[in-house]
């Protein structure tokens, strides 16, 4: 993604999504700490909780990917090294996105 304005806008959108979801997650994590295992399963089998967790994780991964790419573009001088790191990060982030999607679908279905 070479369009820096689009990167900037995407990072701000994901940050805006993450702010309320972070408060929801902290509240949920406090509640989950007091629950038994089967209650936690029931919590994540709720479509609303599963959806909010899914959106939070996907937004967090995309937001961090954009931030790391910006840092690499600014501070890594070797073009080969920068390209290798960016490709590696892309594969790793997309792998985690797919993994999270599969696991959340397994919990809900």
Describe it:
It is a single chain. This protein is mainly α. 90% of the residues lie in helices and 0% in strands. The protein has one domain (4-108): Fumarate reductase/succinate dehydrogenase, transmembrane subunit (3 helical TM bundles of succinate and fumarate reductases), CATH 1.20.1300. The chain has helices at 4-33, 37-45, 47-75, 79-108. Helix 1 packs across helix 3 (47-75) and helix 3 runs antiparallel to helix 4 (79-108). It is elongated, with a radius of gyration of 17 Å. It starts with a helix and ends with a helix. 3% of the residues are buried.
Sequence-ordered SSE layout with sheet pairings:
Blueprint: H1 4-33, H2 37-45, H3 47-75, H4 79-108
Observed structural traits:
3 helical TM bundles of succinate and fumarate reductases; 4 helices; 90% helix; mainly alpha; 109 residues
**How many β-strand runs?**
0
Provide the β-strand percentage band.
under 5%
Which structural class should the secondary elements be placed in? Answer: mainly alpha
CATH superfamily caption = Fumarate reductase/succinate dehydrogenase, transmembrane subunit
Summarize the helix and strand pattern as letters.
Answer: HHHH
- From the coordinates shown, what is the CATH architecture? Up-down Bundle
CATH class division = Mainly Alpha
Number of contiguous helices: 4
What does the largest sheet look like?
none
Q: What's the average pLDDT? A: 95
CATH level 3 topology: 3 helical TM bundles of succinate and fumarate reductases
Number of domains: 1
Rg calc: 17 Å
Residue share in helix: over 70%
**N-to-C CA distance:** 35 Å
Shape descriptor: elongated
Q: Low-confidence parts lasting 5 or more residues at pLDDT below 50?
A: none
């Amino acid at each position: 993604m070479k369009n820096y304005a689009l990167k900037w806008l995407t990072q701000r959108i994901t940050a805006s999504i993450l702010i309320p979801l972070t408060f929801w997650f902290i509240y949920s994590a406090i509640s989950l700490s007091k629950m038994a295992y089967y209650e936690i399963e029931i919590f994540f089998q709720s479509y609303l909780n599963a959806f909010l967790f899914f959106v939070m994780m996907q937004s967090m991964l995309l937001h961090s990917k954009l931030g790391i790419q910006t840092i690499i573009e600014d501070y890594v001088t070797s073009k080969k090294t920068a390209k290798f790191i960016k490709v590696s990060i892309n594969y790793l982030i997309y792998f985690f996105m797919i993994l999270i999607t599969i696991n959340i679908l397994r919990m809900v279905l």
